[in-house]
Amino acid sequence: MTYRIDCLQYANWSEKVFRQMREGGVDAVHVTIAYHETFRETVLNFEAWNRWFEQFPSLIMKGQWASDIERAKIEGKTAIFFGFQNPSPMEDDIGLIEILHTLGARFMQLTYNNQSLLATGCYEAEDPGLTRMGRQVIKEMNRVGLVIDMSHSADRSTIEAADLSERPIAITHANPYFWQPALRNKRDEVIRAVTQNGGMMGFSLYPHHLKGKSDCTLESFCEMTADACGKFGVENFGIGSDLCQDHPDSVVEWMRVGRWSKEIDYGEGSASAPGFPQMPTWFNDNRDFKNIEEGLRAKGFSQKEVAGLMGDNWFLFFRDNFTPQAASS
């Protein structure tokens, strides 16, 4: 059995989006349920998803373990896995990590662009690496089965996290810096640190991460995929589309700024066009994963390699990293 898995979306969730997931044959999606929310605010987001699971039981189901993806595929549903793009839901309480995992969280970024209590974000001028608290949080995340995500983190912090963590870490949504030199994309030494420790990286379809941005071609994207897989191993990559479908432009302000600034931070976008950028023509929503699959085949990837990149690699990663560590006897 093969799977189609997207390891990052933040859409304006609706029946329309859920039906497009099914039309696209997407078996599992890692969805962002917190950018800057506190613990209590994040619980409200869990509640909202519980209502969607009740409302659309023929389309989506809650995902907690890799076995849920198997069940979702058999039943014709999409398994939804939860993650945070910021450590804000744990606040300053390491004990909340296990609580959040129990509620269903499976990924947590240590930073979102800025310096956090745990590590440094990719927009900071200096990167002193992991903090004392960050090192303790990594240890606890390893213990409970909450995956460390460094998608928005700076280089040193990411390398230190990959080396310190006893379990593989992830960059769920980014692209190689050698292809498109954006602040959020990852340099070779960062990708190497993550992959050589068994970690995974999801290639992003968000235009600011693409060569040519909205005008990026499918061929260019697949050429980048081939180059990265040649350098670091095809088994270490998948898709993390960063699809932000159907949101009003005002949502970008919450993503970028939260409550930490009175000013608008447009990030890698343009101040003259602060909203969501236009997606490339070959990937607008969940129905377009087939285009990527066809592009990878045309680039010369084998059937097994295409299956791995489209989801099987993430399936194995989910299987091995969501469960708590066995207690030592």
CATH C-level class is Alpha Beta
Number of domains: 1
Full CATH superfamily name: Metal-dependent hydrolases
Order of helices and strands: EHEHEHEHEHEHEHEHEHHH
The helix count comes to: 11
Q: What overall form do the CA principal axes indicate?
A: globular
Structure notes:
- The protein contains eleven helices and nine strands.
- By secondary structure, the protein is an alpha/beta fold.
- The chain has a single domain (5-321), classed as TIM Barrel.
- The strands form two sheets. Strands 1, 2, 3, 4, 5 and 6 form a six-stranded parallel β-sheet that branches. Strands 7-8-9 form a three-stranded parallel β-sheet.
- α6 (155-164) packs parallel to α7, α8 (218-232) packs across α10 and α10 (289-298) crosses α11 (303-321).
Question: Can you describe this structure in just a few lines?
Answer:
Helix content is 39%, strand content 13%.
Question: What attributes characterize this protein structure?
Answer:
6-stranded parallel beta sheet; 3-stranded parallel beta sheet; 11 helices; 9 strands; alpha/beta; 329 residues
Secondary-structure map:
Elements: E1 5-9, H1 15-23, E2 28-34, H2 39-55, E3 60-62, H3 66-75, E4 78-84, H4 96-103, E5 105-109, H5 132-144, E6 147-149, H6 155-164, E7 170-174, H7 188-196, E8 200-203, H8 218-232, E9 237-239, H9 250-257, H10 289-298, H11 303-321
Parallel strand pairs: 1-2, 2-4, 3-4, 4-5, 5-6, 7-8, 8-9
